[in-house]
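Q: What would this chain look like folded?
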Amino acid sequence: MSFLLRLIKIAILAAWAKRRNLLDTSVIHLCVWPNDLDLNVHMNNGRYLSLMDLGRVDVMFHSGAFALWFKKGGQPLVAWSCCRHFKPLRLFQRFQIRTRILGWDQKWIYFEQRFTRGADLYALAAVKALMAGNERLISTEELFSATGHGVSPSPPLPQWVLTWLEAEKQSIAALKAARD
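A: My prediction, written as structure tokens:
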């Protein structure tokens, strides 16, 4: 099934679903289709990243953030992501993507996304993202207020995410130094 058809399915299901809190875990149910496969006949590594978009869009649809997206004419943007694969997802296997917000700062929202089948973990990802309007970035404060969540302190990020963010800072510094 194409990405666009999956997106339409998520949008239709969200239209009739009860609105959720921005911090609730989103669970979407998917299946591995032939166009998801790579040469090893399991889901392509790049497809995981594409499907993670659907999990984050589901959070936006169910929390009301999607309306802000259109109202401000903006778009959600990913700055940094990593995905650790534990088991391959094979043709026609059904699986879930569980997406939750781990925390935030003034600019960034940090997501955890899990690919699961029952109790088995197939992949674990972390994503650093923000919402950009036509003319400016939309702060997390504005985003949370628009969804009715209100602004509260972020829960502390897990140590593994802090370590990952420190690695990001080091890689950016190394790239900048190499450019100079």
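Residues 106 and 140 are 6 Å apart (CA to CA).
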